[in-house]
Amino acid sequence: MLSLEQELKGNTYPGRGIVIGRSADRKQAVTAYFIMGRSTNSRNRVFVTDGEGIRTEAYDPAKLEDPSLVIYAPVRVLGNKTIVTNGDQTDTIYEGMDKQLTFEQSLRCREFEPDGPNYTPRISGIMHIEGGNYNYAMSILKSNNGDPSTCIRNTFAYENPGAGEGRFLHTYMHDGNPLPSFQGEPKEVAIDQDIDAFTEMIWNSLNEENKVSLFVRYIDIETGKYETRIVNKNR
To answer: Smaller CB count within 10 Å for the chain: N or C?
Structure first.
């Protein structure tokens, strides 16, 4: 099991990242989502609450250039399911699952982002809590090593995750031009028991220059009640 703190501190630009797992006492389903940015347009954002989820919005509307890949709802809740993604595929998953499609089926109509030469992967997660049971899945849609003619679709499902265990999926292996897409399975990382300690650790571990916003949620697996933390560099 890897240290999420060390994974983040050792990578100046993992891009956008999703963590999903379970608290050490087994009582909480845990997720975190962060965004980073190198351009003025990417850095000009904050997370705001939107119903049971969140959305991004421009910190300074006058500086917003192209909203297409930076303004979206990263988190939405559909009944006992919590959807977390790095783009507007949140809505695609929500609408598909609302029509009884599976998580994987809902994403069949989507692929990586059209931002060549990076072709940023679309990363997504779904948490399902019902009757005291908890499972989750993660997905990445990416180009074939920068070749946009092929879309590689990987889905990873985790049933009854272990205590204190989580998985970390992010868009880029490291900084670069073009940015290299994430490779391999989501990384196994430890999950802190305390939401405030976990939030603080992630935020403080992200590269100071590139970090933009962070969302963390702990959901009680028995009751469905949740706690949320949002941290924005632009306040």
So the answer is: C
Q: In a 10 Å sphere around its CB, with 0-12 CB exposed, 13-18 middle and 19+ buried, how is residue 235 labelled? A: exposed
Q: Please state the rounded mean pLDDT for residues 215-223.
A: 97
pTM over 0.85? The answer is yes
CB 46 within 8 A of CB 200: no
Element (H, E) at 119: none
The whole-chain average pLDDT of the chain stands at: 97
Q: What one-letter code names the amino acid at 62?
A: A
Structure-token pair, residue 169: 């999926």
d(CA 153, CA 56): 26
CATH architecture of 4-232: 4-Layer Sandwich (3.60)
Is the peptide bond prior to 74 cis by the omega test (within 30 degrees of 0)?
Answer: no
How far are the Cα atoms of 13, 19, 31, 189 from residue 199, in angstroms, in the given order?
A: 18, 11, 10, 15
Contact indicator for 172, 14 with CB cutoff of 8 Å = yes
Spatial separation of the C-alpha atoms in residues 9 and 203, rounded to whole Å:
10
User: Which tens digit of pLDDT belongs to each residue from 100-109?
Assistant: 999 999 999 9
Q: SS3 of 218, please?
A: strand
**Alpha carbons 66 and 51: distance in angstroms, whole number:** 25
What residue spans define the domains of the chain?
4-232
Task: Read off the DSSP letter of residue 175.
Answer: S
- The residues, any chain, with a CB within 8 Å of residue 200's CB and separated by 6 or more, are none
Are the CB atoms for 169 and 177 separated by under 8 Å? no
Helix ranges, the chain (H)? 4-9, 40-43, 89-98, 103-106, 195-205
